Amino acid sequence: MPFTVTIEPSARQFSVPEGGNILSAGIQAGVSLPYGCKDGACGSCRCKKISGTVVQGEHQARALSPEDAAKGFILTCCASAHSDIVLESRQVLDVGMPVVKKMPVRLISAEKKAPDVMLLKLQLPQTETFEFRAGQYIDFLLKEGQKRSYSIANAKPEVLDVDESNENAPRFIELHVRHMPGGLFTDHLFHALKDKEIFRIEGPLGGFFLRPSDKPMIFLASGTGFAPIKALIEQVMTSSDASLKHRPIVLYWGARTLADLYLFDWAHATSQAWPQLSFIPVLSEPSAEDAWHGRTGWVHKAVLEDHPNLSGHQVYACGAPVMVDAAREDFVQHAQLSSDDFFADAFLSLADSKTSAPQAPK
After folding, report:
1. Is CATH 1.10.3720.10 correct for 101-205?
2. Alpha helix locations (H) across 61-135?
3. Can you give the pTM of this predicted structure?
4. N or C terminus: fewer CB in 10 A for the chain?
């Protein structure tokens, strides 16, 4: 007998088989629960259980601490239902998510933007539609069931043909891929990539996207966490929604050196052309060659220096888990940011997902 999961305060409901995964059932039902890694490592799907019986599967302590678990919080990505359940998740929207599909894509171009960052353009099939929300990601489907996840860096599929009225013009998505030496997928991309190579992908995935509000926004990125942030910026710039288009945005992008800000010129030019956007780059270890006179240190600390009170803002953060975790904690505890206004996508490599031993199932 299936159980009913009710999400408060939106009152959205969906069914889940006994012992079935809560997040997977929600995705299948088109209920937009927040999620990220789907592996119990990032904490994006964390929400509070109001009632019902849930068995929590293996997860990392940084995603769900024992203290939070004792307070009733769960990770829906690795939790199974054993009764009707009521959950509290204020990030759920009343609209369904785009349909998740598997499809082939063809390499259009691969351009190094930094020694260890590749900008890929992948042509979508002309016979299928592929809809996504700016900020979501795709999985590359590799051999033996392995997957690698990358955020889409454009707000919507772009047309290769200059004539956008041509319905048959090829469309593409953009990805920013950092090389992980020894990595199964990125070693191939950086050393053995073939012209017009075919890949198989699944998507769109993820619960990172803009939420309705009239609050000004802080966009916070580290490294290639800039990819989904770029998509969000493009969404705002091209939106026909006047209330969204006029919301102020401050973009903070942190990296070690200037070369690691691999689309610095794009971010700078966009902020110069569009008054609603301010761009603040932050380097943690600028080199002598950088001749850097801008901000230095940890990027989330720069946000706190400029915005000691974030109670009237929304924050969208992407990048290394250590940055996302530190930003969430400091912004909520020290800058009065509501936890409901912090939206994140932690970029977990395979190594990241193994840095903490999973807790035993409870």
Report:
1. no
2. 66-70
3. 0.84
4. N
